[in-house]
Amino acid sequence: VTISNGIVWSADYSTMYYIDTALDTVRAYDYDIDTGNISNERVAVEHQIGDGHFDGMSIDEEGMLWIAVFDGWGVQRYNPDNGALLRHIRLPVRQTTSCAFGGENLDELYVTSAVYGMDDEALQGQPMAGALIKIDPGVRGVPGFSYGG
Questions:
Q1: I need a labelling partner for 9 at 20 to 30 A (CA). Which of 33, 80, 114, 123 fits?
Q2: Looking at the predicted structure, is the pLDDT value of residue 111 above 70?
Q3: Which of 38, 42, 44 is nearest to 14 (CA)?
Q4: In this structure, is the dihedral angle defined by the CA atoms of residues 65, 22, 51 and 109, taken in order, positive or negative?
Q5: Order of strands across the sheet with 108-113?
Q6: Does pTM surpass 0.70?
Q7: For 64-110, what is each residue's pLDDT tens digit?
Q8: Mean pLDDT score across all residues of the chain
Q9: Tens of pLDDT along 50-73?
Q10: Closest Cα to residue 60, out of 15, 20, 106, 21?
Q11: Confidence of residue 1 (pLDDT cuts 50, 70, 90)
Q12: CATH assignment of 4-135?
């Protein structure tokens, strides 16, 4: 583990997805909900386009992964079954850090951002840097996961 970041579970809790930012991949593991044990590590998604690195992550009701791309100007939606990039939503901030579904119906995606290492000129060019940004992803999220062990 180098830079531990996003972690989510499939709707049936049989698969755990995890991001180590330095590897720029989403790793999938078989997950045992009773013990919390993981096994069968494999690469589910590799960063495919543009600059940046995978950072925080969320999962929608269709089982697709939403990933904030630090230094990548947005969030990306991937199919973890085949690694396909399904969508890129460009945002007015370079350093997106994480994302989570919210709202009464879990139909809003909230994206956090940072100002790491930005000077005054960069901040003037990105006045929303460091802000929480709400977007309409067109899909709903799932309730958060809670391990009882």
A1: 114
A2: yes
A3: 38
A4: positive
A5: 96-102, 108-113, 132-135
A6: yes
A7: 999 999 999 999 999 999 999 999 999 999 999 999 999 999 999 99
A8: 94
A9: 789 999 999 999 999 999 999 999
A10: 106
A11: confident
A12: 2.120.10.30
Q: 126: which 2 tokens?
A: 């990105």
Domain definitions of the chain by residue range: 4-135
CA distance 52 to 69: 6
- Kindly give the residue spans of alpha helices, DSSP state H, lying in the chain: 120-125
Q: Would you state the pLDDT for residue 147?
A: 63
Active-site amino acid positions: 55
Task: Please state, in angstroms and rounded to a whole number, the distance separating the CA atoms of residues 56 and 28.
Answer: 15
Give the burial string for 46-67 (b: 16+ CB within 10 Å, else e): ebeeeebbbbbbbbbeebbbbb
Query: What is the per-residue pLDDT for 4?
Result: 87
Q: 137, 60 in Cβ contact below 8 A? A: yes
> Which strands sit side by side in the sheet containing 15-20, from one edge to the other?
4-9, 15-20, 25-31, 38-46
Chain CA centroid to CA 69, Å: 8
Instruction: Tell me how far apart the alpha carbons of residues 51 and 147 are, in angstroms, rounded to a whole number.
Output: 34
